[in-house]
Amino acid sequence: MMEAPGITLRCEDCRRAFDEMYPGDFCEACGGLLNAELVLDPSSAATLRGRFAERLRDIVRGGADGSGVWRYRELVLPSAARDEIVTHPEGNTPLLSRASVSAWVNVDGLLLKHEGHNPTGSFKDRGMTVAVTQARRAGAAAVACASTGNTSASLASYAAHAGIPAVVFVPAGYVAMGKLAQTLAYGALTLVVPGNFDDCLALARRAAAELDVRLLNSVNPFRVEGQKTIAFEMLQQLDWRAPDWIALPAGNLGNTSAFGKALREARALGLIDRMPRIAAVQAEGAAPFARSFAGDFAERPVVVPDTVASAIRIGAPASWARAIGAIRDTNGIVLSVSDAELLEAKACIDASGVGCEPASAASVAGIRSLRRRGVIGAGDTVVAVLTGHLLKDPEVVIEYHSGTASRRRGANPPVEIEATIGAVRDALKRRSLNRDALRGDDLAPDAGA
Amino acid sequence: MMEAPGITLRCEDCRRAFDEMYPGDFCEACGGLLNAELVLDPSSAATLRGRFAERLRDIVRGGADGSGVWRYRELVLPSAARDEIVTHPEGNTPLLSRASVSAWVNVDGLLLKHEGHNPTGSFKDRGMTVAVTQARRAGAAAVACASTGNTSASLASYAAHAGIPAVVFVPAGYVAMGKLAQTLAYGALTLVVPGNFDDCLALARRAAAELDVRLLNSVNPFRVEGQKTIAFEMLQQLDWRAPDWIALPAGNLGNTSAFGKALREARALGLIDRMPRIAAVQAEGAAPFARSFAGDFAERPVVVPDTVASAIRIGAPASWARAIGAIRDTNGIVLSVSDAELLEAKACIDASGVGCEPASAASVAGIRSLRRRGVIGAGDTVVAVLTGHLLKDPEVVIEYHSGTASRRRGANPPVEIEATIGAVRDALKRRSLNRDALRGDDLAPDAGA
Predict the structure, then answer these.
(1) Which residue of B46, B197, B392, B401 could cross-link A184, Cys pair, CB 3.0 to 4.6 Å?
(2) Residues near A123 by Cβ (< 8 Å), separated by ≥ 6?
(3) B310 CA: distance to closest CA in chain A (Å)
(4) Residue B405 pLDDT
């Protein structure tokens, strides 16, 4: 057994140190975010690689060693004992190659790291398994978040498994029942609060301060530790050969931050011998980070977000400073894509048989944009992270393929036919003429079906 | 390498034999179903087990060896070359233990085999990876099905990956766009045909006969071969120790048949040393097989199906004779559960943080019923197969937890509160009083929240 020294939580602003059982997400002295510091021993890279490989055999057997998060536990939460770990298990997501998507972005070496294949359908499970494990270790009476999307679904699932109540705060004006289905099903106490999202978060913070409810924000250091394992697992799948680029959907910037930390640690340990470049891709209507990047991060703009991609519809990203570090340390780039580009990328990923949530497609749309500008080379190895499953947002699919408004590129509406064999033959013929719609090179709306 | 002799397709009625490239699902002489016969060598059990264990390392690397279907390829489609295989990959689904669900059924040794963690969210992917692989090997110009549910989603996904057009026939009166979202997204040509489901299937059959479209019905022998791997994988996860019982949701009886075949083969090969008993669980409103079982299968009733569990809403199951064989060969049992029992089982599975599609919960509801009747013992090891993901049917979740009709047991509606810390405290208190609602012992509707 490797020694399990635990981690130190250090304030990213005033550098004050806290024990890993410290219950807050913020420094009690200055309010800064807390960073989980691991003791890294560069001489252990080969040992770690061997151990990570060994544990692959336990994937179908389940338990902590079978998890794509806890397989890397020395780099996540080394002090957690096996029986303290709350695991579904999660992770073990595929790294896919699909010719039609490669052709669409014009990069042969494109790979799709599909985080939608986590238990609740999104990458959030990787952070939640660690944050809920730690909350239970620290004796929290309940865990909470303010969200109506993937975060609350994942929180509710892991809290249920841990046997801790989950509380989800939802602003009264913003409740869409469909988005709450998983949260309600997994048994979270869902509190509908008068006011807007800020009022909601304020109440959640008071509950955290006064009721021993642990608020598991996206800035929670243990959620970041869990999310790092997307990068570790991807690198293991590539036999620890770093790709040239990693493209990420970017909203609240939690993933950009987590990838930055993971890659710094992997490089420091010698698990990889060079840094991949991060491309953080925002939706045009919610792109404060991309705008800031263009001015070398001198400004921190806040926008009123507007995009079809709800999972990255964020106007004031929480993990701002961390994400700047991630971009700088990886010689990264931040860009934005339009909703039309993003939806066309999604249609292409969906039509390959893989499928994803709208926000996920930002990574693929961003790669196409960077390839066209010559920033990404034709021979580069590029990993696009897909953050959520197609089933997370069927409404966008239906609207895209059967909407009565302007027909979208590659739209695939149902076709009404007569019950004759000739009608079937004709439909198949028309279809084969239209099969290559998504291979085209311009983004203009397309009148054909 | 083990020899790859291929399989023989033999008519289950007249025993006529066909080559594995025979393109139909039915015997051309008598119209009987075709069974895939493998050459089984009992001396190879140890070799096979070792090989199956070896391939576990490839799970995160992807490809055929990393698939939970093709890992068992010697027992599925031994003649398929690696580069012919159309794999996402699929399978590698977890075998879960959850204390709250065990308590609800009163069986400590309950395990949940969760097939909802396949790529498209249901077990159908296991059959489709094999059927689409074989259709492409045999040179089919297109593949087709008549379905609006999990089958068409899976067909569309695998056909897209294979680069073969998929055609889905849908009866005009029965199109619910929400159920078609995956099918449209994955790019299947969706033909809306006037008439009912039978008219639709008749046209699909004509297309299969006249247009070189391969109809991949549930009775397709290669789909059965793929579905067998749920059983093989479960047995491998149990270190080849057979459980006492395996409970399956039963509608069209494809899974019951596939489990029967898999268990017979595993027993013949010596992979297991005794037969588990199969419990096939139907919904009360769609229970012709349960009714027939009660009369020792003397009758073959057809019913007008009516149940909330759409995936098993079948009045005239297609795999009837095969399923009888599965029940007889495993000393099995067939029973039915009411929609209320099934929905309470689903609420319990969901609230454990695992979640499933409504039909999946039939297996767990059936186990509770058999345990109460003393058929299943307290010390038995029992595997419940969950066939689909929670996200497959969010409407049923919303209806259950927030429906204005009679409140359901364990319902978890959103709670409106004032924006005060006292209101949060009160809601948490009320909640903890109601937490054990699903542990109760009667099925009467419950007025509390």
Answers:
(1) B401
(2) A115, A116, A150, A227, A230, A255, A385, A387, A388
(3) 17
(4) 52
